[in-house]
Amino acid sequence: MYVLDIDRTTRPWTPEQAWLLIKSLAFTPSLRYNELLLSDTFKADGGEPTLRALEQAELITVVSSNGRPHSIKPGKPVYQAAFRQLTEDKVLAARLDLAVLNQLIALESKAIEKAEAELGLLGGLPGQGREVKSRVKWLLGKLQTSQGKVEAYEREGAVLKKVLQKEF
């Protein structure tokens, strides 16, 4: 229901987002609310509406402190054991981890394209000098960081693909 939904338009969350929560809560009793919102998987679409929808679907419970969201726990106590069992299924875990990696690769590729486009624009400016040097340096650093992430994600994905090829 949460992670194997074929029609992504019927739910306000992606299977990758649900899987990240399931995997994270399988061995940890609670997660920091804001830390999760800063993860790339949730940051891409504004996160909070997604977390509210997952709470309404009872996958998670958002715990508030001083009138603000504080932490995230499994929707019901028995869910933590169920989450643990799901993560122990090697094929399911590999399939969903691969989907998460593909989503992260797409996000980083988009960041790379954006930086390359801006570098192209800056390169076309007449008389470029000290004024754009710091921006170009920053963009090149961002490109290098994103490319490193893509390469790491692809290495992880290769390992997961081998699991999918060998396991039943």
Structure summarized in a few sentences:
The protein contains 7 helices and 3 strands.
The total of helices stands at 7
Helix and strand sequence = HEHHHEEHHH
Query: How many beta strands in the DSSP annotation?
Result: 3
Q: What topology, given as strand order, has the largest sheet?
A: 1-3-2
- The span between the termini is 21 Å
Report the portion of residues in β strands.
5-15%
Helix fraction bin: 55-70%
Low-confidence blocks of residues: none
Shape: globular
For the biggest sheet, the summary is: 3 strands, antiparallel
SS-based structural class? mainly alpha
Q: If you average the pLDDT, what whole number results?
A: 91
Nearest-angstrom radius of gyration? 20 Å
Overall description:
The structure is a single chain. This protein is mostly helical and 168 residues long. 67% of the residues lie in helices and 9% in strands. The chain has 7 helices and 3 strands, in the order H-E-H-H-H-E-E-H-H-H. A hairpin with a 2-residue loop joins strand 2 (60-65) and strand 3 (68-74). Helix 6 (90-123) runs antiparallel to helix 7 (130-166). The longest helix is centred in the last third of the chain and has 37 residues, at 130-166.
